[in-house]
Amino acid sequence: MPSDFATDAEAGRWNYRPPEPVALNPLFAWPPKPLAAVRWYRAYWMALTTSTLTVAFAVFVFFAILPPLETMKEWNWDWVLRVYLANLVPHCVCAGLLHYWLYMREGQGSTFKFDARAQAVDNGTFSFRNQVKDNMFWTVASGITVWTAFQLPVYWAMANGWAPAFLFPEHPVWFVLMFPFLVIWSSFHFYWVHRALHIPWLYRIAHALHHRNVNVGPWSGISMHPVEHVLFFTNFLIHFVVPSHPIHVLFHGYMQATHPVFSHSGFDQLYVNDRERAKMGDFFHQLHHRYFECNYGTVEMPWDRWFGSFHDGSEMATAATRARKKRMHA
Questions:
Q1: What value, to the nearest 5°, has the Cα angle with vertex 86 and ends 231 and 51?
Q2: The predicted structure's pLDDT at residue 3
Protein backbone atom coordinates (compact mmCIF):
# COMPACT_ATOMS: atom_id res chain seq x y z
CA MET A 1 0.00 0.00 0.00
CA PRO A 2 1.42 3.44 -0.90
CA SER A 3 2.50 5.27 2.26
CA ASP A 4 0.64 8.44 1.22
CA PHE A 5 -2.69 6.79 0.37
CA ALA A 6 -4.48 8.30 3.40
CA THR A 7 -3.49 11.84 2.47
CA ASP A 8 -3.19 11.86 -1.33
CA ALA A 9 -5.25 14.28 -3.45
CA GLU A 10 -7.95 11.69 -4.13
CA ALA A 11 -8.91 11.64 -0.44
CA GLY A 12 -10.08 15.26 -0.70
CA ARG A 13 -12.51 14.44 -3.53
CA TRP A 14 -14.70 12.28 -1.30
CA ASN A 15 -16.72 12.85 1.83
CA TYR A 16 -15.61 9.34 2.87
CA ARG A 17 -13.03 7.08 1.28
CA PRO A 18 -12.09 3.66 2.71
CA PRO A 19 -8.79 3.80 4.61
CA GLU A 20 -7.03 1.32 2.29
CA PRO A 21 -6.91 0.85 -1.50
CA VAL A 22 -9.63 -1.29 -3.06
CA ALA A 23 -8.77 -4.99 -2.77
CA LEU A 24 -9.62 -7.71 -5.29
CA ASN A 25 -10.54 -11.33 -4.62
CA PRO A 26 -7.26 -13.09 -3.62
CA LEU A 27 -8.56 -16.36 -5.10
CA PHE A 28 -7.03 -15.22 -8.40
CA ALA A 29 -3.76 -13.91 -6.95
CA TRP A 30 -0.45 -15.23 -8.23
CA PRO A 31 1.45 -16.69 -6.51
CA PRO A 32 -1.54 -18.31 -4.76
CA LYS A 33 -2.68 -16.93 -1.41
CA PRO A 34 -4.95 -19.67 -0.02
CA LEU A 35 -5.25 -18.22 3.50
CA ALA A 36 -6.16 -14.80 2.13
CA ALA A 37 -8.80 -16.43 -0.11
CA VAL A 38 -10.28 -18.27 2.88
CA ARG A 39 -10.47 -15.03 4.85
CA TRP A 40 -12.09 -13.27 1.87
CA TYR A 41 -14.86 -15.86 1.52
CA ARG A 42 -15.35 -16.09 5.27
CA ALA A 43 -15.95 -12.33 5.38
CA TYR A 44 -18.52 -12.59 2.57
CA TRP A 45 -20.34 -15.77 3.59
CA MET A 46 -19.93 -16.13 7.36
CA ALA A 47 -21.10 -12.66 8.42
CA LEU A 48 -24.07 -10.36 7.83
CA THR A 49 -23.46 -9.13 4.27
CA THR A 50 -25.57 -8.62 1.17
CA SER A 51 -24.44 -12.09 0.06
CA THR A 52 -25.92 -13.79 3.12
CA LEU A 53 -29.01 -11.57 2.90
CA THR A 54 -29.68 -12.65 -0.69
CA VAL A 55 -29.27 -16.31 0.30
CA ALA A 56 -31.80 -15.77 3.10
CA PHE A 57 -34.24 -14.14 0.66
CA ALA A 58 -33.86 -17.07 -1.75
CA VAL A 59 -34.48 -19.73 0.89
CA PHE A 60 -37.48 -17.91 2.38
CA VAL A 61 -39.12 -17.21 -0.98
CA PHE A 62 -38.58 -20.79 -2.17
CA PHE A 63 -40.44 -22.26 0.80
CA ALA A 64 -43.00 -19.48 1.40
CA ILE A 65 -43.91 -18.06 -2.02
CA LEU A 66 -42.55 -19.97 -5.02
CA PRO A 67 -44.95 -22.70 -6.21
CA PRO A 68 -43.69 -26.30 -6.54
CA LEU A 69 -41.58 -26.83 -9.64
CA GLU A 70 -43.97 -29.37 -11.15
CA THR A 71 -46.75 -26.75 -11.25
CA MET A 72 -44.62 -24.68 -13.62
CA LYS A 73 -44.81 -27.22 -16.45
CA GLU A 74 -47.73 -25.30 -17.91
CA TRP A 75 -47.90 -21.56 -18.27
CA ASN A 76 -50.51 -19.83 -16.13
CA TRP A 77 -50.83 -16.42 -14.55
CA ASP A 78 -50.88 -17.73 -10.98
CA TRP A 79 -47.24 -18.85 -10.82
CA VAL A 80 -46.03 -16.14 -13.21
CA LEU A 81 -47.48 -13.46 -10.92
CA ARG A 82 -45.98 -15.11 -7.85
CA VAL A 83 -42.53 -15.07 -9.43
CA TYR A 84 -42.97 -11.41 -10.37
CA LEU A 85 -44.07 -10.45 -6.84
CA ALA A 86 -41.23 -12.49 -5.34
CA ASN A 87 -38.89 -10.16 -7.26
CA LEU A 88 -40.80 -6.91 -6.90
CA VAL A 89 -41.60 -6.92 -3.18
CA PRO A 90 -38.15 -7.70 -1.67
CA HIS A 91 -36.46 -5.32 -4.09
CA CYS A 92 -38.79 -2.41 -3.34
CA VAL A 93 -38.73 -3.06 0.40
CA CYS A 94 -34.91 -3.03 0.47
CA ALA A 95 -34.56 0.03 -1.78
CA GLY A 96 -37.41 1.88 -0.08
CA LEU A 97 -36.25 1.27 3.51
CA LEU A 98 -32.63 2.03 2.69
CA HIS A 99 -33.54 5.23 0.85
CA TYR A 100 -35.77 6.27 3.75
CA TRP A 101 -33.05 5.66 6.35
CA LEU A 102 -30.13 7.15 4.42
CA TYR A 103 -31.70 10.00 2.43
CA MET A 104 -35.12 10.93 3.80
CA ARG A 105 -34.56 10.51 7.52
CA GLU A 106 -30.79 10.97 7.14
CA GLY A 107 -30.46 8.40 9.90
CA GLN A 108 -26.67 8.34 9.84
CA GLY A 109 -26.10 11.79 8.40
CA SER A 110 -23.02 11.77 6.21
CA THR A 111 -21.20 9.07 8.20
CA PHE A 112 -19.58 6.66 5.71
CA LYS A 113 -21.18 8.55 2.78
CA PHE A 114 -18.89 8.53 -0.24
CA ASP A 115 -20.21 11.63 -2.02
CA ALA A 116 -21.34 14.61 0.06
CA ARG A 117 -23.98 15.66 -2.50
CA ALA A 118 -27.69 14.90 -2.13
CA GLN A 119 -29.79 13.10 -4.75
CA ALA A 120 -30.63 15.41 -7.67
CA VAL A 121 -33.95 17.28 -7.87
CA ASP A 122 -35.27 19.75 -10.47
CA ASN A 123 -32.66 18.41 -12.88
CA GLY A 124 -33.61 17.96 -16.52
CA THR A 125 -31.11 15.13 -16.94
CA PHE A 126 -33.56 12.78 -15.21
CA SER A 127 -37.06 11.61 -16.12
CA PHE A 128 -39.58 13.66 -14.09
CA ARG A 129 -36.65 16.06 -13.36
CA ASN A 130 -35.99 14.00 -10.23
CA GLN A 131 -33.23 11.42 -9.73
CA VAL A 132 -35.12 9.17 -7.30
CA LYS A 133 -38.34 9.12 -9.33
CA ASP A 134 -36.31 8.47 -12.49
CA ASN A 135 -34.52 5.55 -10.82
CA MET A 136 -37.73 4.10 -9.38
CA PHE A 137 -39.49 4.21 -12.75
CA TRP A 138 -36.72 2.46 -14.71
CA THR A 139 -36.14 -0.07 -11.92
CA VAL A 140 -39.77 -1.18 -11.70
CA ALA A 141 -41.08 -0.61 -15.23
CA SER A 142 -38.11 -2.19 -16.99
CA GLY A 143 -35.69 -3.79 -14.52
CA ILE A 144 -37.95 -6.06 -12.50
CA THR A 145 -40.04 -6.87 -15.58
CA VAL A 146 -37.02 -8.02 -17.62
CA TRP A 147 -35.52 -9.81 -14.60
CA THR A 148 -38.75 -11.81 -14.23
CA ALA A 149 -38.99 -12.42 -17.98
CA PHE A 150 -35.59 -14.16 -17.91
CA GLN A 151 -36.37 -16.21 -14.80
CA LEU A 152 -39.71 -17.58 -16.01
CA PRO A 153 -38.34 -19.69 -18.91
CA VAL A 154 -35.70 -21.14 -16.57
CA TYR A 155 -38.34 -22.43 -14.14
CA TRP A 156 -40.52 -23.68 -16.98
CA ALA A 157 -37.58 -25.51 -18.62
CA MET A 158 -36.54 -27.00 -15.27
CA ALA A 159 -40.08 -28.27 -14.66
CA ASN A 160 -40.18 -29.90 -18.11
CA GLY A 161 -36.71 -31.44 -17.89
CA TRP A 162 -35.23 -29.14 -20.56
CA ALA A 163 -32.85 -27.39 -18.16
CA PRO A 164 -30.62 -29.39 -15.76
CA ALA A 165 -32.11 -29.20 -12.28
CA PHE A 166 -31.98 -31.01 -8.96
CA LEU A 167 -33.80 -30.74 -5.66
CA PHE A 168 -32.22 -30.61 -2.21
CA PRO A 169 -30.87 -32.76 -0.55
CA GLU A 170 -29.52 -34.13 -3.83
CA HIS A 171 -25.89 -33.15 -4.47
CA PRO A 172 -25.39 -31.25 -1.17
CA VAL A 173 -21.77 -30.28 -1.93
CA TRP A 174 -22.64 -28.82 -5.34
CA PHE A 175 -25.71 -27.17 -3.80
CA VAL A 176 -23.40 -25.16 -1.51
CA LEU A 177 -20.66 -24.53 -4.08
CA MET A 178 -23.18 -23.23 -6.60
CA PHE A 179 -23.61 -20.02 -4.59
CA PRO A 180 -19.99 -18.78 -4.92
CA PHE A 181 -19.88 -20.18 -8.46
CA LEU A 182 -22.81 -17.95 -9.45
CA VAL A 183 -21.07 -14.93 -7.93
CA ILE A 184 -17.93 -15.62 -10.00
CA TRP A 185 -19.97 -16.37 -13.15
CA SER A 186 -21.93 -13.15 -12.75
CA SER A 187 -18.72 -11.17 -12.28
CA PHE A 188 -17.31 -12.67 -15.50
CA HIS A 189 -20.53 -11.97 -17.41
CA PHE A 190 -20.96 -8.47 -15.99
CA TYR A 191 -17.45 -7.38 -16.96
CA TRP A 192 -17.84 -8.25 -20.64
CA VAL A 193 -21.40 -6.94 -20.96
CA HIS A 194 -20.48 -3.76 -19.12
CA ARG A 195 -17.35 -3.26 -21.23
CA ALA A 196 -19.49 -3.64 -24.36
CA LEU A 197 -21.96 -1.07 -23.02
CA HIS A 198 -19.16 1.49 -23.00
CA ILE A 199 -18.73 1.18 -26.78
CA PRO A 200 -19.78 4.72 -27.80
CA TRP A 201 -22.86 3.88 -29.92
CA LEU A 202 -24.19 1.36 -27.37
CA TYR A 203 -23.42 3.74 -24.53
CA ARG A 204 -25.49 6.48 -26.19
CA ILE A 205 -28.42 4.12 -26.91
CA ALA A 206 -28.59 2.40 -23.54
CA HIS A 207 -25.93 2.73 -20.85
CA ALA A 208 -26.03 6.52 -20.64
CA LEU A 209 -29.33 6.21 -18.77
CA HIS A 210 -27.68 4.35 -15.89
CA HIS A 211 -24.77 6.79 -15.89
CA ARG A 212 -27.06 9.70 -15.24
CA ASN A 213 -26.33 8.60 -11.68
CA VAL A 214 -22.90 10.04 -11.00
CA ASN A 215 -23.90 10.25 -7.34
CA VAL A 216 -25.71 6.95 -6.83
CA GLY A 217 -28.44 5.97 -4.37
CA PRO A 218 -30.36 2.78 -3.43
CA TRP A 219 -32.78 3.09 -6.36
CA SER A 220 -29.90 3.50 -8.85
CA GLY A 221 -28.82 -0.15 -8.76
CA ILE A 222 -30.80 -1.48 -11.72
CA SER A 223 -32.08 1.82 -13.06
CA MET A 224 -31.19 1.06 -16.67
CA HIS A 225 -32.45 1.24 -20.23
CA PRO A 226 -34.44 -1.86 -21.37
CA VAL A 227 -31.67 -2.74 -23.84
CA GLU A 228 -29.18 -2.83 -20.99
CA HIS A 229 -31.56 -4.89 -18.85
CA VAL A 230 -31.86 -7.49 -21.61
CA LEU A 231 -28.07 -7.75 -21.93
CA PHE A 232 -27.57 -7.69 -18.15
CA PHE A 233 -30.00 -10.53 -17.41
CA THR A 234 -28.74 -12.87 -20.12
CA ASN A 235 -26.59 -14.30 -17.34
CA PHE A 236 -29.61 -16.43 -16.37
CA LEU A 237 -28.84 -18.55 -19.45
CA ILE A 238 -26.20 -20.35 -17.35
CA HIS A 239 -29.05 -22.34 -15.78
CA PHE A 240 -29.70 -24.02 -19.13
CA VAL A 241 -26.14 -25.39 -18.98
CA VAL A 242 -25.13 -25.90 -15.35
CA PRO A 243 -27.34 -28.01 -13.01
CA SER A 244 -28.97 -25.86 -10.35
CA HIS A 245 -31.78 -25.73 -7.82
CA PRO A 246 -34.67 -23.20 -7.91
CA ILE A 247 -33.12 -21.63 -4.80
CA HIS A 248 -30.04 -20.89 -6.90
CA VAL A 249 -32.18 -19.19 -9.54
CA LEU A 250 -33.76 -17.03 -6.85
CA PHE A 251 -30.38 -16.23 -5.31
CA HIS A 252 -28.99 -15.39 -8.75
CA GLY A 253 -31.78 -12.87 -9.31
CA TYR A 254 -31.43 -11.22 -5.91
CA MET A 255 -27.66 -11.08 -6.28
CA GLN A 256 -27.99 -9.47 -9.72
CA ALA A 257 -30.77 -7.04 -8.89
CA THR A 258 -31.24 -6.55 -5.14
CA HIS A 259 -27.55 -6.63 -4.20
CA PRO A 260 -27.03 -3.45 -6.32
CA VAL A 261 -29.53 -1.66 -4.05
CA PHE A 262 -26.86 -1.85 -1.35
CA SER A 263 -23.77 -1.53 -3.54
CA HIS A 264 -25.26 1.65 -5.06
CA SER A 265 -26.43 3.02 -1.70
CA GLY A 266 -23.71 5.67 -1.69
CA PHE A 267 -22.56 4.63 1.79
CA ASP A 268 -19.79 2.25 2.78
CA GLN A 269 -21.41 1.04 6.01
CA LEU A 270 -24.88 0.83 7.52
CA TYR A 271 -24.58 2.77 10.77
CA VAL A 272 -27.41 2.51 13.34
CA ASN A 273 -27.42 3.64 16.98
CA ASP A 274 -23.80 4.74 16.67
CA ARG A 275 -22.65 1.28 15.64
CA GLU A 276 -21.52 -0.18 12.34
CA ARG A 277 -24.16 -2.78 11.56
CA ALA A 278 -23.19 -4.10 8.15
CA LYS A 279 -20.86 -3.55 5.22
CA MET A 280 -22.98 -2.58 2.22
CA GLY A 281 -21.39 -0.03 -0.12
CA ASP A 282 -19.03 -0.69 -3.00
CA PHE A 283 -16.35 1.96 -3.41
CA PHE A 284 -14.95 -0.02 -6.37
CA HIS A 285 -18.15 0.62 -8.34
CA GLN A 286 -18.61 4.12 -6.90
CA LEU A 287 -15.32 4.98 -8.60
CA HIS A 288 -16.75 3.74 -11.90
CA HIS A 289 -19.75 6.07 -11.60
CA ARG A 290 -17.46 9.04 -11.02
CA TYR A 291 -14.67 8.29 -13.50
CA PHE A 292 -16.57 6.13 -16.05
CA GLU A 293 -13.70 4.39 -17.84
CA CYS A 294 -12.51 2.17 -15.00
CA ASN A 295 -13.72 -0.70 -12.81
CA TYR A 296 -16.07 -2.22 -15.39
CA GLY A 297 -16.32 -5.50 -13.47
CA THR A 298 -16.50 -6.42 -9.79
CA VAL A 299 -13.95 -7.19 -7.08
CA GLU A 300 -14.75 -10.91 -7.43
CA MET A 301 -12.60 -11.30 -10.54
CA PRO A 302 -9.52 -9.25 -11.52
CA TRP A 303 -10.56 -8.50 -15.10
CA ASP A 304 -9.94 -4.78 -14.63
CA ARG A 305 -6.43 -5.41 -13.36
CA TRP A 306 -5.70 -7.82 -16.21
CA PHE A 307 -6.97 -5.36 -18.84
CA GLY A 308 -5.58 -2.16 -17.35
CA SER A 309 -8.81 -0.50 -16.18
CA PHE A 310 -8.48 -1.06 -12.43
CA HIS A 311 -8.89 1.94 -10.11
CA ASP A 312 -7.94 1.26 -6.49
CA GLY A 313 -9.12 4.63 -5.16
CA SER A 314 -5.72 6.34 -5.22
CA GLU A 315 -4.68 9.62 -6.83
CA MET A 316 -2.24 7.70 -9.06
CA ALA A 317 -5.10 5.53 -10.35
CA THR A 318 -7.24 8.61 -11.03
CA ALA A 319 -4.45 10.14 -13.11
CA ALA A 320 -4.05 6.88 -15.07
CA THR A 321 -7.81 6.64 -15.65
CA ARG A 322 -8.03 10.22 -16.92
CA ALA A 323 -5.10 9.64 -19.28
CA ARG A 324 -6.69 6.44 -20.61
CA LYS A 325 -10.03 8.19 -21.07
CA LYS A 326 -8.34 10.98 -23.04
CA ARG A 327 -6.72 8.40 -25.32
CA MET A 328 -10.00 6.53 -25.79
CA HIS A 329 -11.92 9.64 -26.78
CA ALA A 330 -9.20 11.32 -28.81
A1: 70
A2: 52
